[in-house]
Amino acid sequence: MQPFRVYILGCGSALPTPKHMATSQVVEVRDKQFMIDCGEGTQIQLRRSHINFNRLHAVFISHLHGDHCFGLIGMISTFGMLGRTAPLHVYAPAALEPMLKAQMDMFCNGLEYEVVFHAVETTLQQVIYEDKSVTVETIPLEHRVPCCGYLFREKPTLPHIRRDMIDYLQIPVSQINNIKAGAGWVKEDGEVVPHERLVTPADPPRAYAFCSDTRYMPELYKVVQGVDLLYHESTYCEDRADRAELYHHSTAAQAATVALKANVKKLILGHYSARYNDEQQIVNEARKVFPESYLTAENDVFEL
């Protein structure tokens, strides 16, 4: 099974603390790496996580609050100093484009690579990126500013070839891809060996949903139904549910409710309020609703 990983670079909320960095993650799907959000200090966290800057294909910004995008211009500048030549694609709400252009005009003259901006409509659920391995889909959320999450879906792969059958039937290497694609094999005596005997089923496609800052949305579970891994912000516990409602954030119990109703395999929590010195309270609350709930921390890696 090829890699599908989520690297946690930062899991704090808006108020900087010595304990947590601002929100940022890297999603690795097969041979590509994608960043979600780019809070202040993200490029330092890339180094700490031993992520190759040049492998980063695109950045997806959920919304225009500083703890989710202040690190972007610094990272773009650093990429230039490191001699990047491949384009960097930035997907974000449209309002970021003129601000990013002004920053680049001021600080990033002479870049030897292109920054390609893609405006994201946060109110629509739609596929905004696709390649041979993965699709990325927006998840409309409800925050104080336009905001969306992102759903990464792995594309189905071909079935696995049975090595014992290949050896037994002496099938040439040149025909293996044809068999994976659905062909059978004709033996010298004319007997047809059906495709189903030559392969084992493909690995099931995996999916990761990133739900950034949002108030509790009772219908959100329908969009993330059945994903392997769900990240859902959990800024507060129920003891501060009034603040969650006021600032359009979610509690740990609310995040766990989404996970439970969506029948996901695992829930990871983040965007912790600086008011909590010990996040164990947050995960304990979530596990009362959905036992497969886990805290995120800087430099954590979650395998799907």
Which helices and strands, and how do they pair?
Blueprint: E1 4-10, E2 24-29, E3 32-38, H1 42-48, E4 56-60, H2 66-69, H3 72-81, E5 88-93, H4 96-107, E6 115-120, E7 127-130, E8 134-140, E9 148-154, E10 160-161, H5 163-169, H6 176-180, E11 185-186, E12 192-193, H7 195-198, E13 199-200, E14 207-211, E15 229-233, H8 241-246, H9 252-262, E16 266-270, H10 280-289, E17 293-295, E18 301-303
Parallel strand pairs: 3-4, 4-5, 5-6, 14-15, 15-16, 16-17
Antiparallel strand pairs: 1-2, 1-18, 2-3, 7-8, 8-9, 9-14, 10-13, 11-12
Helix pairs in contact: 9-10
Annotation keywords:
25% helix
Protein architecture, described:
It contains 10 helices and 18 strands. Strand 7 and strand 8 (134-140) form a beta hairpin. By secondary structure, the protein is α/β, with parallel strands linked by helices. The longest helix has 12 residues, at 96-107. The strands form 4 sheets. The chain has a 7-stranded mixed β-sheet.
**Spatial gap, N to C terminus:** 10 Å
Beta-strand segment tally = 18
The run of helices and strands is: EEEHEHHEHEEEEEHHEEHEEEHHEHEE
Rg over alpha carbons: 22 Å
Largest sheet: 7 strands, mixed
What share of the residues does DSSP label as strand, in percent? 25-35%
- The low-pLDDT segments are none
Give the neighbour order of strands across the main sheet. Answer: 6-5-4-3-2-1-18
Structural class: alpha/beta
Number of helical runs? Answer: 10
Shape: globular
* Helical fraction: 25-40%
Integer average pLDDT: 93
